């Protein structure tokens, strides 16, 4: 923070002139990258306190980095969740499928099949491994980059694609921007475009579960950029005040669109350390280490379930791709960042771990990746029978007016009639009931 | 007439129980806490203390701390956790201490509560009732007097309800709590203790002298979306809600004008049928609200009346509102849409 102000103030007094500090990322397009200032401790070196530990007694974990997978691809230390190989292979399978899905949907957007898409490349462990540590009926309040949770919970791929294509199969009736999924059946809360709003909602859900003497807990995911929103502060405050059984997951992927994490406050502290001021347990985790992600979420889930209180977990990771299909990261960051990111790739690291313990090999990996790609391709073709965006196979017009309220009030009835009239003028030959447009 | 007409019998001597609006609201909450285990009352100072206006007095002691509790001073948090509670299956009744302080919770109300049913295609709903004291006439200055109802009526997916009597306050609040849509329930704090005529230099009457303070003890509901005919008349239609119902009534009485006065009670969904029937009968329409004029709810009412009753109108629709300024402290009675402003508008409407 060396924006020293040596000059005298232009206002004429004898005090030094003040200077505004504006954060600047490590590198811009064309610059070489240097991640040497990123402190990466040895895997296994971090203590694992009891789940009932007091936040003030585990400060180091909020500033450190919980890691399990070492450079030798073996699991180390007390945070090793000691998962059986079958579970690890399942985890890897979810990651492979999520990555294949992202690739295909990104391409679908470029081909004009939908308006928008967002990948989670490089962050798969922060949703998949974390979600696998929860019970399937624990309620999750995700942001838009946790499609891995749906995949880990077995949500049908075709439903995801139908939603992305806003077609007649779309459960959300084409009302939502692509990727703003919702599945009550999978305890997956409806995604909103408004950032961080889900965080106090997750706390409220957890409070409700506690009010009713239920055993289910809530978990929410938010990007590091969105932690700057007031809602996040509300969430942390309410979570601690009521000892809500909730896990606040912060995905620190270094970038909020074009703004590096310094604009969310990362220059002087960690996001996990924010927890301490609220009296929350804070864990900072290698977000590309699937075992560490699982272990941290499991620790926090055990803590919440035992009425020991909420936890804030920062997953230190890297957004490997652009923010969305509308974004070009070459406009604001060095292209080398992704390759030089010191925590590597979560899928590769888990794969290498399975190979290192003799439970996997390259051939099986290749087969898995191929099968994932084939499954996505096949399901995409299936979904396309329900239509793609703008090709007419959408929900009937009147559905636009439904569900604003439980019952249609008079003014919406009138507007629905107007839409029907307009439709007849625009497409006089179409069938009135199919809503196909043309 | 789709509006509910109540018999206008100014009972002088009665054995019937009479309560004020605060007690009516308290009873509605008490009854709903009793009837439905999923009802939760929360907000700043609502728990142990019973609320700065006493609306929640005694409820925590009776129903327990996990049903009625104090919250941190965070309107965003209060509304946000209420959305989450609704998603779980509870029926939260959060309180915002003054409507002037609802703004930090607007994103949660507009972007979340109002749209949750729509965006999730009914997978999740927000069956919450946000109670908040609103309106001026109490020397509340800029931040204890505002009437922000038009911010909410403009939001698709929210219902906005404003009672003007103890009887209505209880019956409407019970309906709101049972309603599966998010409702903004604005309580006109000027008339918590007694109806206000707008003649601020005259002594204020307590509710116990008003017919609408006879409130049944048990459970009853007043349907949302139905206006109340305060009085029937032929001279003109007055559309009002909250405190202004009583002010308009007093001015008409003072002037000897026989107006058809409609208390709208619910702004969204609006009782358009009652409005159309009345204006078609009288041919003249006066709209009264405390809120500032430009883009206020009166503009919507005026447009609707003009669109739907144009050929029945014998005079332009008039709006009497607060001025387009922040709510002042010392000049309160110059700001408040009181008898002089209403009287002038009535004269203008009736002049030919």
Keywords:
heterodimer; A: 438 residues; alpha/beta; two-stranded antiparallel sheet; 13 helices; 7 strands; 36% helix; disordered C terminus; B: 352 residues; six-stranded mixed beta sheet; four-stranded mixed beta sheet; 12 helices; 33% helix
Summarize the structure.
The complex is a heterodimer of chains A (438) and B (352). Chain A has helices spanning 59-63, 85-110, 124-132, 147-152, 157-165, 198-211, 230-241, 274-278, 290-305, 337-340, 346-356, 362-384, 410-426, and strands spanning 139-141, 218-223, 246-252, 255-256, 259-260, 281-286, 311-316.
Overview of this structure, please?
The complex is a heterodimer of chains A (438) and B (352). Chain A contains 13 helices and seven strands. In chain A, helix 2 packs across helix 3 and helix 6 (198-211) packs parallel to helix 7. In chain A, strands 1-2-3-7-6 form a five-stranded parallel sheet, sandwiched between helices. Chain A has a two-stranded antiparallel ribbon with strand order 4-5. Chain A has 438 residues and is of the alpha/beta class. Mean pLDDT of chain A is 95; it is low at 432-438. In chain A, a hairpin with a 2-residue loop joins strand 4 and strand 5 (259-260). In chain B, strand 12 (285-292), helix 10 (297-309) and strand 13 (318-322) form a beta-alpha-beta unit. Chain B has a six-stranded mixed sheet, with helices on both faces. In chain B, strands 5-7-6-11 form a four-stranded mixed sheet. A three-stranded parallel sheet of chain B has the order 3-2-4, with helices on both faces. With 352 residues, chain B is α/β, with parallel strands linked by helices. The interface between A and B is large, with 47 and 48 residues.
Number of helices of chain A: 13
Strand fraction of chain A: 5-15%
Question: Spans of chain A of 5+ residues with little confidence (pLDDT < 50)?
Answer: 432-438
Total of DSSP H or I helical runs spanning 4+ residues of chain B: 12
Distance between the termini of chain A: 61 Å
> Low-confidence spans of chain B: pLDDT under 50, at least 5 residues?
7-12
Number of β-strand runs of chain B: 13
Give the averaged pLDDT of chain A, no decimals: 95
> What integer value in Å does the Rg of chain B equal?
19 Å
Strand order of the largest sheet of chain A: 1-2-3-7-6
Largest interface: A-B, 47 and 48 residues
Multimeric organization: heterodimer
- Alpha-beta content class of chain A: alpha/beta
- Give the overall silhouette of chain B: globular
The average pLDDT score of chain B comes to: 95
- Largest beta sheet of chain B: what is the strand line-up? 1-8-10-9-12-13
Structural class of chain B: alpha/beta
Helicity level of chain A, as a percent range?
25-40%
Strand content of chain B: 15-25%
Q: Profile the largest sheet of chain A.
A: 5 strands, parallel
- Strand-and-helix sequence of chain B, N→C? EHEHEHEHHEHEHEEEHEEHEHEHH
